[in-house]
Amino acid sequence: MKIAVKEVCFFTRVLKLFGEKERLAFEIDSEGFRMSLSHLNSYYVNLEASLFDIEEPEEAAFTINPRLLVKNLHFFRSGLTMEVGVFFTLRNTDKQTTTEVRVPLNKPEDYAYTFLEASTKVLLRNTSVIRYFTGTTTYEAKNNALVLTKTENEVRDILAMEDIEWLQTGDLYFTCNNDWVKGLDVLGDYTEVILMEFSTYVLSVKFLFKKFRESYLEIQVPKSKKKSQNSACPSHMNDQNLNNYHWTSMNVSTWAMEQISNRLAALGYKVVDSNIQAHINNRMSKLSLVYFYSLKAEKGSEWMKLCSFDSYCDMGDVMGSNRDDAKCFFEFLKGLEVTAVDVFRDRQYTDPDKRFEKHVDHGIKISAGNYEKKDCKSSASAGEKLVDVKLEFQISCSVEEFINFLTNPSFVAAWSANQFSTSGTQLHLLGKAVINTGEGRKLQFKMNDWKQWSDVSIEPQNGNICIRLKNVPCAGKDVVVSFWYNGVVDKICRTFGFRFKQIE
Description:
Blueprint lengths: L1 E4 L2 H9 L7 E6 L2 E7 L3 E7 L3 E4 L4 E5 L1 H5 L9 E5 L2 E7 L4 E7 L15 E5 L11 E7 L2 E8 L2 E7 L2 E5 L4 E5 L4 H6 L3 E8 L3 E8 L6 E7 L22 E7 L1 H14 L3 E14 L2 E14 L2 E8 L9 E2 L2 H22 L12 E5 L15 E2 L6 E11 L3 H9 L1 H7 L4 E4 L2 E4 L3 E5 L4 E6 L6 E8 L2 E10 L3 H20 L3 E3 L2
Antiparallel strand pairs: 1-5, 1-7, 2-3, 2-6, 3-4, 4-18, 7-8, 8-9, 10-14, 10-16, 11-12, 11-15, 12-13, 16-17, 17-18, 19-20, 19-24, 20-21, 21-22, 22-23, 25-26, 26-32, 26-33, 27-28, 28-29, 29-30, 30-31, 31-32
């Protein structure tokens, strides 16, 4: 497979990010060029297909040592081509000379993408100052500003960033190694905005580029371990009661760590870093295990990694070089949910640290059906058969945030790859449909070939988001469902890093 690089300078800048790394995974197909790396930080790069011309296209996945490429990048100015065969070859041809660098291919490694449940999200447009805050840095939200604090050699630096845009606000106190900002030294000229998403244990930093709207770099940075950590519940377990459902919890983190370490040892792995939190909850006489696992384990050259693993995660969230071991470990983790309940169901506790403590929490999420189609009815004006359509899905953002991504032109430009135009309050999307933006959660929608508008409401329902469309032409209902799920919701999630699950 031969690949001609159209944007040589941008492509070589991206490669420079990995100049000190020893392995970098590549995936190439008709949709573009992807790179990934998982060490202390996880890197995910997506380069859109328009940056390349691919001869004899086919799918390819492999791993290389990027140091061998980066130290020779100064040879490649223009006319850069890549070839995937026995070697990964970069070739630079001009009128007089040809320069070629060959790098051995290694077997592919599966650095599965980790989806995060973010509680705080913020957009940074001015990145000129933050790039100087390297090393251990604490992020806080104070008086509508993002405050960074760095202490080094008894000198304390504080930066309050007010020129930002909050997309989602929550309790924020997050400490991490802030060396991700070094990426701005390499790609700062190409970066339009940085999207920062803070979850319980991981900060996701996404570089969104000015010119290449479908390309991005995401760096996932783990939270720094505290010097002393209390055995308290995760912060969201102490929120004020919304539905007045009382529950009790008991910390079983030490027990869970022992079980996990023993299982990994049986597979030949040694835990080198971990942050294990597990609690047995007793809610309305029903026991369950609530947990958040982050760890890294090694077995020679093989490795296993969890990042904010909880009961909603699936097999793809267990990262590792040996997929058989990863599958075995995943099955163990799911079985541990049942084992914990059996072990602690009838046990009496005399140790004060192991007694149940009373709490209150939020209501339980209830899933609903996929989309409902009522009996067709006739339109008095056009004589068409009409139907009401309901779409319901889980997504890791609020309704208001979703509507903002859907209707704000600055965000639409990103997820639609600039395939839109505006006319007054109307958004013409992807050459197929029009949205007439309104106030709050109400708007209007129609495909280009429709004669009339459909009234649309976007509301929360059972912890999910529900989109209801009124008076959709019966013959086009399947097209509408596909357009919203594949053309809108999925694109928003892929662009801004949200988790999306269609309700069956």
